[in-house]
Amino acid sequence: MKPPALTRVADGVHFVNTGSANWTILTEGRSATLVDAGYPGDLPAVLWSLERLGHRPEDLAAVLVTHAHVDHIGSLPELLRRAPHAKVLTSAAEARHVRREFLEQATPFDVVANLWRPGFLPWALHIVRAGALRDVRVPAAEAFPAAGPLDVPGRPVPVPTPGHTSGHTCYHLPEAGALITGDTLVTAHPTSRSAGPQLLASLFHHDEPAVRAALDVLEPLPAGLLLPGHGPHLAASPADAVALVRAGRG
Ligand SMILES: [Zn+2]
Fold first, then answer.
1. CDD domains in the record, alphabetically (predicted)?
2. C-beta of residue 65 within 8 angstroms of C-beta of residue 88
3. Using the 8-state DSSP alphabet, how is residue 247 labeled?
4. How much distance in Å is there from the Cα of 8 to the middle of ligand 1?
5. Which of 23, 72, 188, 215 is 20 to 30 A from 4 via CA?
């Protein structure tokens, strides 16, 4: 396993970037929250990142999901066997998606049809090796118990941002001044030739106009640090990042 980049970005907030998928670990004493979980093949890297922070999988009180794509929930079935206390939480719509009551994800056919694009072939080979074609579902996924800050380590506040998927959710960390943007707003992707705040390619979004509308939701949030689903973390406010996306860099 190539160790991912693990960065402490704020008190109790740790950002992990494998180069193709990201997750965030929120720690509070002996307890931790994991936000997203990489591809199926990222299980060793998820376990490594917890261990580096002095945590065992059993310490996970919750796993929050931004959305149910295989690069964000892939390691969960195996991880949950070792984390019996962890609740898997997301929005009501996305919980059904995580349970695979439906699937909103680019198909292998969509990907093959785009292999002519720069960067797609090496990316496709990488994700197949990482387990992207595996049928991943997490029956234990449930909806947040209520609106507002969640009673889990890090006290994240869910921000509904439907578009990339119908129940996509970002997470605001008011105390840390950080925003986990998931795949609503990213800072790089193996299939993108630009760096900095941007939207993923259209084929990855379930409803692209809704993704653009979701940017309006992120724009006013008070934060100075963005933790995206893909690409490096970025010291920028949501307003500045959204302005760059709208200016056509996205
Ligand atoms: Zn993704």
1. yflN-like_MBL-fold (cd07721)
2. yes
3. I
4. 21
5. 215
Distance 184 CA to ligand 1 centre (A): 9
Mean pLDDT computed over every residue of the chain? 94
> Which tens digits make up the pLDDT trace of 198-241?
999 998 999 999 999 999 999 999 999 999 999 999 999 999 99
Domain with 175 in it: what CATH number?
Answer: 3.60.15.10
The tally of domains found in the chain comes to 1
Residue pLDDT, tens place only, 61-71: 999 999 999 99
Name the residue range of residue 60's domain.
5-249
Q: Measure 182 CA to ligand 1 centroid, in angstroms.
A: 7
Q: In this predicted model, what pLDDT tens digit does every residue of 153-170 receive, in sequence order?
A: 999 999 999 999 999 999
CA 248 to centroid of ligand 1, rounded, Å: 21
Give pLDDT, residue 249.
Answer: 52
